[in-house]
UniProtKB/TrEMBL annotation, chain A:
Localization: Cytoplasm; Nucleus, Nucleolus
UniProt keyword annotations, A-Z: Cytoplasm, Exosome, Nucleus, Ribonucleoprotein, Ribosomal protein, RNA-binding, rRNA processing
Major localization listed first in the record, in broad terms: cytoplasm
Lineage, top ranks: Eukaryota, Fungi, Dikarya, Ascomycota, Pezizomycotina
Native source species: Aspergillus pseudoustus
The protein, known as: Ribosomal RNA-processing protein 43
TrEMBL record, chain B:
Taxonomy of the source species: Eukaryota, Fungi, Dikarya, Ascomycota, Pezizomycotina
Subcellular location(s) per record: Nucleus
Keywords attached to this entry: Exosome, Nucleus, rRNA processing
Gene3D superfamilies assigned: GHMP Kinase, N-terminal domain
Domain of life according to the entry: Eukaryota
Matching InterPro entries: ExoRNase_PH_dom2_sf (IPR036345), PNPase/RNase_PH_dom_sf (IPR027408), Ribosomal_Su5_D2-typ_SF (IPR020568), RNase_PH (IPR050080)
Coiled-coil zones: none
Name of this chain's protein: Uncharacterized protein
Principal place of residence: nucleus
SUPFAM superfamilies in the record: Ribonuclease PH domain 2-like, Ribosomal protein S5 domain 2-like
Keyword Lyase: no
């Protein structure tokens, strides 16, 4: 042929370009990157050029959607999520169990702590360790009346496997559930931010005075010394319900981290208008002054970090006899330190690595602002034998470093 | 409060089945396993060299929702590592595990599934054993609650679980690996380590791993280790099944 005649100098090489090798032998490809031959003097690095405990570049942008109360776009490498939060009003009359269970609990207003200053930044709120009982009471509203409604959609054509317009896959449903249960268990949103009150006029002089002050509706008169009188006549008339919609517009692994970061950023951005019950109209009225709208005061900043475990032995998952017991496992870990490594814990696995990592770890940590104590909000590990106590400790440390990074990113956005 | 009660093969038409009842948490689960079976649907999209594991969870009184999808994913992850899906006859076929929650307190939207997760795990491992699905090892699981004062409550009732500061489910394989951990609530790493120790003691007894049979128990573990419970249930069942042979001998 003509081509063979024109290029006689270079014999046809029997080598594959790296991209083809990666597709044909994904396991061997990643393994070759992570354990390069000693002679090559190359560092152990992932196929995507990251160190094992390195996360992808993260960026966040808030307030891009104007028709929402709060929104955020978060990008983690090639995985991108958009989150929009829309607040709607739920009247207590529409809650079937309301009049029976909650309507007139006289102790509730007294227990309430004074409301946060609206100018305070949400990230710098105080910690709630001292007020445990109050929080339990506080949180039951959010759980009982489903005041937070997250929904995650993967059917956006975000990855080849997901067909647009298809019903939510089991994976998407599972992610929605994880976000909801994390919102509940981390008690991120304060229920008092979502309450809309009615102050029945008690025709006292301080009532008029209160209106003159540039104060919010919710600010309890307990502060100005007349709590006993006024608290009797306050009642919750409605709640804000936050619809948290997350669209993964591009998926390249690790959807939970990016979705949760987007929820965090959007909640920090969320502003609710000042709302009160108007007795004459028998309706909730919202103020359209932007200056009166206030941000949510979130409890802490739980940051999620996910990990995948890559095993050097491709057959370790299914060869029955080979699986060593826990004692041997520890000895192998010893030998790991001396020489050959057998497994790698990869932080923030991308789509390629996720397909190769059976074992997953997801950690959500928060740092208490006052004393710098580390609180774990969620710790999940599934699908493998590699991560035990010792490795878990290291992962917690990695997650704490990640917390710092995300905290910085969210502050700047 | 007694230990858990389990029976193997209560259903006659399934390949394998088990029922499991835990009086402490009030959960009662019936599970069936069909394996290996031909699955309908496109096979080329799945891993051809491995068995497909399908898990279905049906709550007692309500249609399944997103919470069930999540727990199914957790169960599939844990069981997928135990089931030897590449043994002869299994590749390209399905292992279908169906779990019906017969009795338990209602699980509301968005609330935690963790209190009944050990029951689901135990039911599925027993049903898999009863269906003679090849497994690399067995496991046992337990749920622990930590209350606000830092006290650990084993196998909490639903009221304890609701009041707890954090809830933890840990599953250990028969070889002592931590197979699964699901923790939620606010806790620190030291608490988790205490929970880990306690859960390991509940699942395996406090003796060193690998010693056979006689397990020295500490005072805070009042029952038989759960790993032994799985073993005994299967042993009893086989003993009953082969009674005719044993009698004849």
């Amino acid at each position: 042929m003509a081509s063979s005649a024109t290029a006689p100098t270079a014999p046809p090489a029997l080598s594959l370009p790296p991209s083809q090798f990666a597709r044909l032998q994904p396991h061997a490809y990643l393994l070759a990157h992570l354990s390069p031959p000693a002679s090559s003097q190359q560092p152990s690095i992932r196929a995507n050029g990251r160190a094992p405990s390195q996360f992808r570049i993260t960026s966040a942008n808030t307030g891009s959607l104007t028709h929402t109360n709060g929104s955020a776009v978060v990008r983690l490498g090639d995985t991108t999520a958009v989150c929009g939060i829309k607040a709607e009003i739920l009247h207590t009359e529409d809650i079937a169990s309301w009049s029976v269970s909650h309507a007139s609990s006289p102790s509730a207003p007294n227990k309430r702590r004074k409301l946060t200053n609206p100018t305070e930044k949400p990230g710098e709120d105080r910690q709630d360790g001292s007020s445990q009982a109050e929080d339990d009471d506080d949180n039951s509203y959010i759980e009982d009346f489903s005041l937070l409604v997250p929904n995650l959609s993967l059917s956006t054509g975000c990855a080849p496997g997901f067909i647009p317009g298809a019903p939510p896959s089991a994976h998407a449903q599972s992610l929605s559930h994880q976000i909801l249960s994390l919102l509940h268990s981390s008690r991120l949103v304060r229920s008092e931010d979502l309450q809309i009150w009615y102050q029945r006029p008690n025709l006292g002089p301080e009532e008029l005075e209160r209106h003159n002050e540039d104060e919010q509706m919710d600010v309890d008169s307990a502060q100005d010394g007349s709590g006993g009188v006024a608290s009797e006549v306050r009642e919750i008339k409605a709640f804000w319900v936050l619809y948290i919609d997350i669209m993964i517009i591009s998926l390249a692994g690790n959807p939970f981290d990016v979705a949760w970061t987007a929820v965090l950023a959007a909640l920090r951005d969320t502003k609710l208008p000042r709302a009160w019950w108007d007795a004459d109209n028998e309706a909730v009225v919202c103020s359209d002054l932007v200056s009166e709208a206030r941000k949510l005061s979130l409890r802490g900043l739980p940051v999620s970090s996910s990990f995948g475990v890559f095993e050097a032995d491709a057959a370790s998952g299914w060869r029955a006899v080979i699986v060593p017991d826990a004692e041997e496992e520890r000895k192998i870990a010893e030998s790991d330190r001396k020489g050959i490594q057998r497994r790698w814990v990869l932080a923030d696995p991308d789509g390629y690595e996720e397909g190769l990592a059976q074992e997953r770890v997801c950690l959500v940590v928060d740092k208490v602002q006052q004393n710098g104590k580390i609180v774990i909000v969620k710790l999940e590990k599934n699908g493998g034998f590699a991560v035990d106590r010792k490795q878990m400790k290291e992962l917690v440390e990695t997650s704490v470093r990640r917390w710092q990074d995300i905290n910085q990113i969210l502050k700047e956005c | 409060m007694g230990g858990p009660i389990a029976s193997l093969h209560p259903l006659s038409r399934a390949d394998g089945s088990a029922s499991y009842k835990c009086p402490a948490t009030g959960s009662n689960v019936l599970g069936s396993v069909n394996a290996p079976i031909e699955l309908p649907g496109r096979r080329d999209a799945l891993k051809p060299e491995d068995a497909t594991i399908e898990v279905f969870v049906k709550p007692g009184t309500a249609p399944g929702g997103v919470g069930e999808r999540h727990i199914e994913g957790i169960l599939r992850g844990a069981l997928g590592r135990i089931i030897l899906g590449r043994e002869k006859g299994y590749p390209r076929r399905g292992v279908v595990i169906t779990l019906a929650v017969v009795g338990c307190d209602n699980i509301a939207r968005g609330s935690s599934y963790l209190p009944i997760l050990p029951a689901l795990l135990h039911t599925s491992i027993l049903a898999l054993l009863s269906a003679s699905v090849p497994l690399s090892m067995t496991f046992s699981a337990t749920v622990l609650a930590v209350d606000s004062s830092g006290e650990i409550v084993c196998e909490p009732s639903s009221t304890d679980a609701a009041a707890a500061a954090s809830l933890h489910v840990l599953a250990f394989t028969s070889q002592g690996h931590l197979l699964l951990n699901e923790s939620e609530g606010r806790f620190d790493f030291d608490t988790w380590e205490r929970v880990y120790e306690r859960a390991l003691a509940i699942c395996h007894g406090t003796s060193a791993l690998g010693s056979d049979g006689d397990v020295a128990m500490s005072e805070n573990v009042d029952a038989q280790p759960l790993e032994g419970f799985v073993r005994d249930t299967v042993e009893d069942h086989i003993h009953r099944e082969y009674a005719w042979k044993i009698d004849a001998a």
